[in-house]
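step: validate -> pass
step: tokenize input -> pass
step: predict -> running
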Amino acid sequence: MDVKIIQLIKLGFYLLFSVVMISCETIGYYSQAAQGQLGLILQRQNINELVSARNISEDLKHKFEDIERIKNFAEVNLGLPVGDNYSSYVDVERDYLVWNVFAAPEFSTKPSTWCYPFAGCVSYRGYFSKDRALRYAKNLENQGFDVYTGGVAAYSTLGWFDDPITSTIINRSSNQLARLIFHELAHQVVYIPGDTTFNESFATVVENEGLRRWLSSLGQTDTIGRINSRQLQRQQFVDLVTSYRDTLSILYEDDLPDTLKRRKKQELQNKLRQEFFLLSEEWGSGGGYESWFANSLNNAQLSTVTSYNDLVPNFEKLLKQSDDDLEVFYSSVAELAKLNETQRKAKLQ
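step: predict -> pass
step: emit ->
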């Protein structure tokens, strides 16, 4: 049976299951998600056929060649399940593939979650339309939530479909493409429905380690040094945001009038910006985080950093304990995935 037909059947099953299991989610939301994924399936073109047809630019051809090398490296050297992922291309004719809406209560740093079939409960709600995402975000704001909306260039379907290369990422550098492919494929190694922090922290460690090995295989030792420096900056950024997240949590637990909490919350947000400014002066640049700090720095925005990075140091330690053997590391993570959330965190920490 044709692969595209099989994936359409999967999509139909997903939509049917979603409607049957529907709770607080609306049929309209699942319909837009299914239509968006259907569009990717129907519009994608086989990369080998595109290259053979010779009707693409040399730049695009070279990108596809880079991607093929990255895929081979991911499979052979990193033990990642490549399969037919990233063997097709889709021009979506927009800046982002989806837009994610994040939310958190006004006086809580714990993000709101939405639950879906197979993916479990996650700390965002995704839309294939920016307008729809913004409308939903506005609705949450009207309910008193802190809200943050961000564009996403790629995502993993967790093996349900063969993920394509899209126009939203094709112009990235080879190293950036390698990062993204390693990260998204890691989700197919281990994924726990409902545990965003575990899943994203694990994938980030695979991404970082994979990139170091990729660059080493290319003999780009100078680049490895620069990458390590950027990763140090990222960890400093994460540590800074996490420290203010924790301080805000303490504030919200205090028995204070809401008006006073709001004022203190604003003061802490301003201090966070000031500390980042001092940190960026040490770096000699903004590290690419300037636009992030131009936003409100509300609870929802802070959660996009802390929820995705809290366990990165723990997974890095586990990788070292595995003697940097990725197969052993994956097995250890798979064993952790069998435990409940409390047990997993205790083991990691």
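step: describe -> Residues 221-253 form the longest helix (33 residues).
step: cleanup -> pass
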